[in-house]
Amino acid sequence: MRKKLLKLVFCLTAFTVNLFAQINVVATLPWIGDIAKQIGKEKLSITVLVKTSQDPHYVEAKPSLIIAARKADILMYNGLDLEIGYLPVIIESSKNPNIQPGRPGNFDCSKFVSPIEKPTSVDRSMGDIHPLGNPHYHFSPLNVLKVAQGMTETLVKIDPQNENYYRKNYQEFYKKLQEKISEWKSKNLSGKKFVAYHTLFSYLANDFGFQIVGCIEAKPGIPPSSGEIKKIIDTINNTKPDAILVNVYSPKKPVEFVAGKTGLKTILVPHDVGSLPQTQDWFSFMDKVITLLSEG
Ligand SMILES: [Zn+2]
Q1: CA 106 – ligand 1 centroid, Å
Q2: Are 154 and 44 found together in one domain?
Q3: Would residue 258 count as lying in a domain?
Q4: Could you tell me how far CA 294 lies from the centroid of its own chain?
Q5: Is residue 5 domain-resident?
Q6: Is there a single domain that holds both residue 52 and residue 142?
Q7: Do 178 and 276 share a domain, yes or no?
Q8: Are 162 and 206 in a shared domain?
Q9: Torsion, CA 180, CA 181, CA 187, CA 188, rounded to 10
């Protein structure tokens, strides 16, 4: 009898644990972690690998990141080789079968988007950090919507008992995004012109009809030569943009030099969720970006 009781208690405990178990999501970037949170809410336990102050192009495969990846049910990443410098090492060293390439738990967000600015030829020895096209599509509402849809399908596959929950959250996300797109479009960015340090804003410019007339960093990831600096100063003088767009990790020297020579103001724009105040989720991040640019 005692044995039977113990068995019953064990079964109940196991059932309870299973019922409330969360899916472990490891996301490389803050915006990815936030979209996952909006679709999975309390059903997910989310760890983000890259800090909000960090340059996402250059991240070290630290042991703490490998440990985090070890317990992941799903690894979600930006793709387009943005994480090429550290993620393959993390995936391999984690020895976690769930997140190996080809498994449902290896979730490449870029599979759902159409990359722009694909280079015609890439020489990695030259340091090109966008070899598969521009990886900064998280500034594009419609691309992020496609990623959210892809995440929903993957969560349903991995955790089918909560299918209705994930689908309901996706519908809420979809509805909020439609409202926000109208709000953002009403800020009327079309016709504006900017110079950026890095090609962060190309998707945003395409979606909202403004122009990036040039970048101080002529080739992504490669510090500008004096010739390239001169060229961008000429471009600024010829096209009269509204401002230079920089982010928290942009090198200060070349930006200050160009601003000093042209008299152009700089605007500090968040590069990801949480990188500046009032950007605690993807919607408020986009609110901040659009407001800064429309007022700039
Ligand atoms: Zn980049």
Answers
A1: 22
A2: yes
A3: yes
A4: 22
A5: no
A6: yes
A7: no
A8: no
A9: 180
Please tell me what DSSP assigns to residue 83. Answer: T
Same-domain status, 226 and 279: yes
Q: What is the pLDDT of residues 209-252, one digit of tens each?
A: 999 999 999 988 889 999 999 999 999 999 999 999 999 999 99
Distance 219 CA to ligand 1 centre (A): 10
Angle between helices 252-262 and 226-239 (to 10 degrees): 40
Task: List the CATH number of the domain containing 33.
Answer: 3.40.50.1980
**Cα 81 to ligand 1 centroid, rounded to whole Å:** 10
Distance 75 CA to ligand 1 centre (A): 21
Is pTM, for the whole model, over 0.85? yes
Domain span at 279? 190-295
Q: Report how far ligand 1's centroid is from the alpha carbon of 263 (Å).
A: 26
Residue type, 145: L
Distance 236 CA to ligand 1 centre (A): 22
pLDDT value of residue 120: 78
Cβ-contact 248, 275 below 8 angstroms: yes
CA of 191 to the centre of ligand 1 (A): 24
What 3-state DSSP class applies to 25?
strand
Q: How far is the CA of 115 from the centre of ligand 1 (A)?
A: 13
Cα 87 to ligand 1 centroid, rounded to whole Å: 16
Q: Are residues 211 and 160 in the same domain?
A: no
